[in-house]
Design goal:
This protein is mainly alpha-helical. The chain folds into 2 domains: about 1-45; about 50-190, Nitrile Hydratase, Chain A (Alpha-Beta Complex). Helix content is about 50%, strand content about 10%. The protein has 11 helices and 4 strands. It has helices spanning about 5-25, 35-45, 50-60, 65-70, 75-80, 115, 120-125, 125-135, 135-140, 180-185, 190; strands spanning about 90-95, 100-105, 150-155, 165. Helix 3 packs across helix 4 and helix 8 packs across helix 9 (about 135-140).
Length: about 200
Amino acid sequence: MAESDGSGDADGDAALRVNAIVSLLVDKGLVDMEALDGIVQAYETKIGPHNGAKVVARAWSDPDYKNRLLENSNAAIAELGFAGAQGENMVVVENTPEVHNLVVCTLCSCYPWPVLGLPPTWYKSPPYRARVVRDPRGVLREFGVELEEHVKVQVWDSNSEIRFMVLPEQPSGTEGMNEADLAALVSRDSMIGTAKVIVPE
């Protein structure tokens, strides 16, 4: 289920196929390579999980912002300058010691691109989309997340109308850290709910 489970070769094969298709489209004049490079650069530098990590870090650092984020996610995210296609209707759900949130799109791969970038391969896979609703704890274990029995797992189904993002629990001992250092701790998977935020030893 997790990306590390034999996905390396598959990712390599997919990259070769993509490169071949791009070369063919460019040769036939159907794709402008400069425009394509601009799109890729945007997702590498302007759009992606580093945006979501900044949202999380601000919420951890500023209780008023956190309240705004949970009450009106779109407006609070826009305060930091993040908005756009696939992120028009956002809802941020908070992980707590009692509740662990997990996001899926059971129909296709609806995903909040402005704050999380491109969806990971496993997020779009039929096994993840089918199993996470039936056996969320089992799926989480495959990602290395073990939850205590009292913790409720809440699964949120993103769709074309609404997209969800998880506000992970802030690790203890990080309360005095600045936002940049906090953001560096936050992974894409923790904002989907398939990981927790861990402070490196």
